[in-house]
Write a structure and sequence with these properties.
single chain; 401 residues; alpha/beta; Nucleotidyltransferase, domain 5; 6-stranded mixed β-sheet; 15 helices; 14 strands; 39% helix; binds adenosine-5'-diphosphate
Length: 401
């Protein structure tokens, strides 16, 4: 069975094409600048070769048509015809309260997804365009939607509700939804596979640390809390997002700076976080370099970044009344040994004992990095959201047969 996974953004289309028998990636790539000048398709072939195709790609449909053309091309393709595509899995950002797991896409599901547009006006429309394009181009191929929010739908109401008038929850669906669900689900399940333990009997804290970062508390196989909320701005300090912030400060800044919603959104989403504190970069590697060179704002931002992760880990250990596994993933979680070390070093009292040697040596690899005596097992698990989407797609389309 071969499955195409699509992640359609406002001006980009990421794709990966899987052979599910071998769980290998046959081809992957990216269509950039959809609808803009300079659009192109980058294809990474299984043999490691990268090919770039330049041409006008006016919309998502033509971008996906291009992807399908490349997959079947004699010179660069990996399949003889489109008939070899058994199913298409789509990453969908927001499933609201309507989707608590991945679903087979039908006309009714599309209508329900349209109802979630208000919750993610920038992300859900391109996701829907991808679905529409596949429906038009290869209508006989089943499609599955995999939602970033779905895994967190198991949170109890007392964890997902905000302390605002209940009527606003009813009217607009204002509550915590959480994001990165596919990643939290993948790494927590994968860690249990690695350790050969029952996923549904563990208390797990997963730290997905990338440009966007979130932490989740997973108890008995279900997400019970997560740091991102109604939008992905809440929680940890991120590359450009502020994370947790006093609402009073938001109102004060808007009043004093005389700015409206749009400017405030840009301020807290795009100009805050590591970038806002350092005024250097949103990229952790740049911030680490600057800190090494003695930049005090960079040093401060790293302390803030690590401190907030540690606070969340402590609060989730309290929320679950314990913790068996702590997992690091995402570009930072997988690759920044200093972040992991500094976060865990101050958590010894709670039973988290990182092995400094393993943490350095096994950086970037799927591995256990806690000491033999640590009460909590600490792991690095590189995330693979696309593989998770492909697996859900396989499972759901096979069940339907
Ligand atoms: P996204 O959220 O966009 O998917 P990633 O998961 O790729 O982002 O994470 C990007 C972040 O990972 C950047 O801040 C980058 O600096 C950081 N990162 C990547 N490699 C390293 C490394 N070797 N050391 C420290 N940070 C790293």
């Amino acid at each position: 069975m071969k499955i195409l996974v699509l992640n359609c953004g406002s001006s980009s289309i990421k794709f990966q094409f899987f052979n599910m028998e071998t769980q290998t990636v046959l081809a992957k790539g990216l269509v950039e600048k959809v609808g803009l000048n300079g659009s192109q398709l980058k294809l990474n072939k299984q043999n490691g070769e990268q090919v770039i195709f330049q041409g006008e790609i006016v919309d998502h449909k033509s971008g996906i048509e291009y992807v399908l053309g490349v997959l079947t091309s004699q010179k660069h393709g990996c399949i003889a015809s489109l008939n070899e595509i058994s199913a298409v899995g789509h990453r969908v950002v927001h499933g609201g309260e309507l989707f608590s797991s991945s679903v087979l896409i039908t006309q009714e599901v599309v209508s329900q997804m349209e109802k979630c547009i208000d919750l993610a006006p920038l992300h859900n429309p391109p996701n829907l365009k991808g679905i529409e394009a596949i429906t038009e181009l290869i209508p006989e191929v089943p499609q599955v939607g995999v939602f970033d929010t779905a895994f967190h739908q198991s949170m109890p109401d007392f964890a997902y509700m905000y302390g605002i008038p209940y009527a606003l929850y009813k009217k607009y669906g204002i509550r915590r939804y959480g994001f990165h669900g596919t990643s939290h689900r993948y790494v927590s399940q994968r860690a249990c596979e690695m350790l050969n333990i029952d996923f549904e009997a563990q208390k797990i804290i997963t730290c997905h640390l990338g440009n966007g970062s979130s932490i989740a508390a997973i108890q008995n196989g279900k997400s019970v809390d997560t740091s991102m909320g109604f939008t992905p701005i809440e929680g940890l300090l991120m590359g450009t997002r502020a994370g947790d912030l006093d609402i009073g400060a938001v109102l004060y800044i808007m009043e004093k700076e005389n700015i409206g919603v749009e400017s405030a959104s840009a301020l807290f989403n795009k100009h805050s976080g590591l970038l806002g504190i350092t005024n250097i970069s949103s990229d952790l590697r740049d911030v680490l370099n600057a800190a090494q060179n003695g930049n005090q704002q960079a040093v401060l931002s790293l302390k803030m970044f690590n401190y907030r992760i540690r606070k969340y880990i402590g609060s989730y250990a309290a929320a679950m009344n314990g913790c068996d596994l702590l997992i690091f993933t995402g570009g930072i979680g997988e690759n920044s040994k200093s972040t992991r070390l500094e976060v865990c070093n101050d958590l010894k009292w709670l039973g988290f004992e990182i092995d400094e040697g393993k943490n350095a040596r096994l950086n970037g690899t799927e591995s256990v990095i806690s000491t033999a005596n640590s009460k909590v097992k600490i792991l690095i698990v590189p995330t693979d959201e696309e593989l998770m989407i492909a697996r859900d797609t396989q499972k759901i389309t096979q069940e339907k047969r």
